[in-house]
Write a structure and sequence with these properties.
Layout lengths: L5 H24 L2 E10 L18 E5 L5 E6 L5 E7 L3 E8 L5 E3 L19 E7 L9 E5 L1 E9 L21 E5 L5 E5 L5 E6 L2 E8 L11 E2 L7 E4 L4 E10 L2 E9 L18 E6 L5 E7 L5 E7 L2 E6 L9 E3 L23 E3 L4 E2 L4 E5 L33
Parallel strand pairs: 1-8, 9-16, 17-24, 17-25
Antiparallel strand pairs: 1-4, 2-3, 2-5, 5-7, 6-8, 9-12, 10-11, 10-13, 13-15, 14-16, 17-20, 18-19, 18-21, 21-23, 22-25
Length: 404
């Protein structure tokens, strides 16, 4: 029979009890560590909690172990605050995950001091941090924002009517034109105008500048003028809002001209064999500038003239300013019913008011001139009645001669 030492057993049990009580006591003495702070609406998307920027409610925030085991989660309150809790022994690394509401983006991380910056990585929404036993973390913040809508419109101002009316009925929209937009962070977004001439881009809130890329559109290949919208390319795009860049109107230069010719038979029509007149000075007027002379050109050796680089507008052609070539008169206006072959100036040497549109060529403004001839000879006394003016036969004065 085996003898048990009851005294030793009692001591052992006592020791075990003390150890167990110590462990229980230590467990009860551990303090839960709180992690949290603020999710806020970063109105200017600068990653800094500015005065007046408010908290964002309803955002889900989760606490995970480094192996992605969920520990705790919370939803931000009406002020944007959240709190996550974990009992920690010593210290350990944990991951805090912020979930973006629909349509929101994360602000840039670590833009200023920890108490005012945004902490999660922009692409993942996760912040990894070391948490120590009993030391609350109260500066893990997240800034969020919505992009703003930046938009504009391009059109062909065919009659150059801006600023009086802007785009008129029937003036074409400009589609498939490249628009390059640079936001406040220097990031570039490229969009194209649609069939209606409209462009739209989603841009980080703040200052944004747009550029109309001329090199990728054939519209701009042969010279143009940017009238409506010219010089205004930088705007402030609001967070979650809309900013219009307005309209951008363009027109192309136009050309007017044709032919100054010698109207031999004075019928006001360019007939076969009638040639051009060189050296005739032709002027063009713009009534919108008070009928002051815009410019003048000289007809070339073949009688042709042209005015290029004209803005769409109303004009008159005039050959009376410098005077007609010596001995010439002006042919009758608008004869024969064919505008390509008639003379377009009136008896004073001025055309009727006509309009030219963007990018067009009016090559039917012709000018007919003629030069009167003379017939002269002598009425004489045919003494011998032979029909030949013989030597000594004198002239007869005061005889009326009629030309039919």
């Amino acid at each position: 029979m085996k003898t048990v030492n009851l005294r030793r057993l009692s001591v052992f049990k006592s020791l075990m009890l003390v150890l167990a009580l110590g462990l229980i006591s230590n467990a009860h003495s551990q303090t839960a560590t709180n992690i949290g702070d603020l999710v806020w609406l970063d109105v200017n998307a600068d990653g800094i909690q500015d005065v007046g920027e408010s908290g964002l409610s309803g955002v889900t925030v989760e606490l995970h172990t480094m192996s992605n085991v969920l520990i705790d989660s919370d939803v931000t309150d009406g002020s944007g605050n959240y709190t996550l809790t974990k009992v920690i022994t010593g210290s350990e690394f944990l991951k805090i995950t912020f979930t973006l509401p629909a349509g929101y983006f994360f602000s840039g991380a670590d833009q200023t001091t920890d108490d005012l910056d945004s902490d999660p990585v922009v692409t993942t929404g996760i912040k990894t941090t070391s948490v120590s036993e009993g030391v609350d973390v109260t500066n893990l913040d997240a800034g969020m924002f919505r992009k703003g809508t930046f938009h504009g419109h391009l059109y062909h101002d065919e009659n150059n009517s801006w600023p009086a009316t802007g785009q008129d009925v029937g003036e074409a929209d400009m589609d498939n034109v490249e628009i390059s937009i640079t936001d406040k962070d220097g990031f570039t977004t490229t969009v194209y105008t649609d069939a209606s001439g409209d462009w739209t881009a989603q841009i980080v809130p703040g200052s944004a500048t747009y550029d109309i890329v001329e090199s990728t559109s054939t519209f701009f290949d042969h010279g143009y003028v940017h009238n409506e919208g010219a010089g205004s390319f930088t705007f402030t795009v609001p967070e979650g809002g809309t900013q219009s860049a307005g309209n951008d109107g363009f027109f192309l230069h136009a050309m007017v001209g044709d032919y100054v010719w010698r109207d031999v038979n004075m019928d006001g029509i360019q007939d076969v064999g009638e040639t051009g007149l060189a050296g005739v000075e032709v002027y063009i007027y713009n009534p919108n500038n008070g009928y002051t002379v815009f410019t003048s050109v000289i007809s070339d050796v073949n009688g042709y003239y042209e005015f290029t680089g004209l803005e769409p507008d109303d004009y008159k052609i005039d050959i009376s300013v410098a005077g007609l070539p010596s001995g010439y008169s002006i042919s009758s206006q608008d004869q024969g019913g064919d505008d390509a072959k008639d003379s377009d100036v009136d008896a004073a040497g001025v055309t009727a008011l006509f309009s030219i549109l963007s990018g067009t060529t009016n090559d039917h403004v012709d000018i007919g001139l003629y030069k009167l001839g003379s017939i002269q000879s002598q009425v004489w006394w045919d003494i011998d009645n032979d029909g030949i003016q013989d030597a000594g036969e004198p002239g007869v004065d005061n005889v009326t001669v009629t030309l039919y």
